[in-house]
Amino acid sequence: MIDLKNLTVKKAHTAFIKNEYSALDLSEAYLKNIEAKNKELNVYLEVFDDVREQAKEADKKIKAGKAEMLTGIPLAIKDNILIQGRRVGAASKILDGYVAPYDATAIKKLKDAGAVFLGRTNMDEFAMGGSTENSAYGVTKNPNDTSRVSGGSSGGSAAAVAADMALAALGSDTGGSVRQPASFCGVVGFKPTYGTVSRSGLIAFGSSLDCIGPITKTVEDAEIVFDCIRGEDSLDSTSVELPKTNSKHPTKELKIGVPRGFVEADGIDSEVLKNFNESLEGLKKTGAKIVDVDVPSLQYALACYYIIAPAEASANLARFDGVKYGPRLSGENGIGDYFKTRALFGPEVRRRIILGTYVLSAGYYDAYYGKALAARSAICADFARSFEKVDIIAVPTSPTHAWKIGEKSDPLSVYLADIFTVTANIVGIPAISVPSGKTKSGLPLGLQLIAPVGYDQKLFDVCKSIF
What we know:
single chain, alpha/beta, Amidase signature (AS) enzymes, eleven-stranded mixed β-sheet, two-stranded antiparallel ribbon, about 15% strand
């Protein structure tokens, strides 16, 4: 029997090469787990019907001596990343029945590597939310405590890895949607430097913020997946090619900055703060130096994000009009068709479209959106100054652990849970969430490490040497 609980990508690859078991055997093991757990956890919206055929093709590649590190590795894919010929819906009724006409660039690269796609995972509708409670198809439950949320918006992908229903997964991160559910579920979530992974084939939420990122069990696995999907892409004008460089002695004289005033502000759970301070003490023991840094504009980050992200969402989601994509509902006339079809959006998506349209409207653009852009520039400048003094910045991934399903009925309380994650998206810098312990009741907690633009590899090297 394959030990899925302790399995990593590298271990599975080695097992394939040594012929200890096949890619088909591994896929069967995950399919069995999915069958046993999915009804309760609601992780997968669809399990693909060709998983075994994909695995058999991977086995042929392995036997031919052409296996890459991800050949035969079973992956879960978030429901906003296109796989040609497969349904994709961003967990929304407005895309019910829509079939992807092409592969996302990240998917194409994984296909070329011989990865096996198990299915599409649940998420907050159009990636708007932090709990997967906004999915049109029901909430995904946390494998560590099924009365609690798995986080969001990539809650299905994080839960898939945590519950051994996939060896690794792809999610998307617009304001923490890979890192926060990774923290809640006790796995690793990586948000790369903006543009290092092509957004072609990712259903857009906030175009200047969106990133595709891996969710895995280990930092090394996250690096393996990232190395496969990274790179400049002619289909995405914002994509970039960054050199892959190794950091020698990553923790020797490493300076880790901590914005104390921001971290210790009101609203952070006492167990989270205690765990964070313990994590810092652990980092000191590896040779790292902890330095207090002042990032004054951080206090504006959350407000800045919740103006820019809805503004970009209102523009991106204007295309869903009942003509170009998905179902079309009939009204009394053309405009009636439009209104009726747009009503298929869930409450949270409608809320953000309305907010975004408002801040972009004549008379309010300068008062809100213009000021948010100015705040964004100030935040970027403050981070640049901080990174002149330190190598990496550390903060908790989330100010709280996973909350009870239905507990946060006020949308603002959910927005506040993004306070430590949105800054990396605003600035476009890489950030990773790693498991840092558990609460007294056994709920996972995460530590977030943030690096300067383009220092994705340094982040991996540091984390691998510590965790």
